Amino acid sequence: MSYTLIQNARLLRREKGKIEDVDLLLEKSQDQKSATLIAIEKRIPKSSLAFPATVLNLRGNLITPCFTDLSVCLREPGS
């Protein structure tokens, strides 16, 4: 397994109705195609981890739950 530590992200928390500055810890799947969210904390220092992790500094970037492209044209394939 491999891990990614996302630091200094701005996270849109719909359930709280606000944007928070947080760190997130993700565990990547073995096929590297998906990841599991392990922790959301105010700060997660890399030195506190007991395993190696890739660190991404997202200072100033916003993480949101999901946006849907409302301009998608739904039609039968090939038409």
Structural class by helix and strand composition: mainly beta
Helical segment count: 0
How helical, in percent, are the residues? under 10%
Parts with pLDDT < 50 across at least 5 consecutive residues: none
Q: Work out the radius of gyration.
A: 16 Å
Care to count the β-strands?
5
N-end to C-end Cα span = 43 Å
| Main sheet specs | 5 strands, mixed
Strand content: over 45%
Order of helices and strands: EEEEE
Q: What overall geometry do the principal axes of the alpha carbons give?
A: flat
Mean pLDDT over the residues = 87
Summarize the model shown.
This protein has 79 residues and is mainly beta. The protein is built from no helices and five strands.
Question: Which keywords apply here?
Answer:
single chain; five-stranded mixed β-sheet; 5 strands
Molecular structure report:
This protein has 79 residues and is an all-beta fold. Helices cover 0% and strands 46% of the residues. The chain contains no helices and five strands. The protein is flat.
